[in-house]
User: Fold Glutamine--scyllo-inositol aminotransferase from Xaviernesmea oryzae.
Amino acid sequence: MTQSLPRILYTKPSIGPLEVAYATDAAANGWGERCYDYINRFEKAFADHLGIAHAIATSSCTGAMHMGLHALGIGQGDEVILADTNWVATVSPIVHLGATPVFVDVRADSWCIDPAAAEAAITPRTRAIIATHLYGNLCDMDRLLEIGRRHGIAVIEDAAEAIGSELAGRRAGSMGLFSTFSFHGTKTVTTGEGGLFATNDAALYDRVLTLSNHGRARGQTKQFWPDEIGFKYKMSNIQAAIGCAQLERIEELTARKRAILAAYRRHLQDIDAIALNPEPVSGVNGAWMPTAVFSRESGITREALQAAFKAANIDARVFFHPLSSLDMFDKVPANRNAYDIPERAINLPSFHDMSEAEIERVADVLRDILAERTSSHSLPRAAIA
Assistant:
């Protein structure tokens, strides 16, 4: 019966006439001396949105992180602390640079890096702490920044999933030494593929700008003369054109994401066994990816949730596996929350054009699976058998 219902996708971008018009202009006219027009415009607009001084558009958030860590001189023998709950894109640049990732646990309430665990993991080799704002949830930046100052360690924001999130009037990505963003097609603001490096540090900005242009410094007068080996993580002018249109709509896009999370809250507010993305004190959750975490007592598992959503013809994503559970790393089972939460959680659909009826359909799956579990456990053992 449910398979006859239209499929609900977990995410897709909001692309309108403005994006099409800007991309068309870039494709038709954005060449030669105009080949950077939309890129420059996008970088300035995003920096202004964050309230920071410098931004560099990149081909991915991973590339932005790679260049930022490289610019800090992080390499062989250095350690970088990050949450065990993360997508692999956050740890890959650390490994590529020859440094050692140190995985620490997350907090049970925010699912973001636990500052106490991060501080406990600091050694003489620690060079940075990466604060990943997971699914739009915000890290405790005030505490992390204080730890960084006290130990002389850089605090970096992985804000790939946090466009629209704010803490006491400060936008996610405006607080660390540098931050990185993603504009993948699944994100609140998209350029198809793409990312961005942001910082208030002028010297760091110049360093990354040189690295991003194959090691060619902007003051270099010789043509095609690199001063060092750099990278090629550039965003295209056509991608940036789409991004410029998205930034003109950013308040609309982020408001809709928050409205979808709020709708899920309304539909599920009477169910104590389900926790959704928390709203920070004195802040705003950008709600990139509404996520339902069931209580341990409920007995609901990730596998049962996947099966229920598949049966309802609804796309849903699993919560990130702990990085240390991947085959290329040593397991850190002491990170109890990072290992436990994914076993009873699911990411919910949240594309901008979702209707109220579709949100209700998704909420009903969560309600039904809990009701079925409760019902089966209330039956006598013989009846269950």
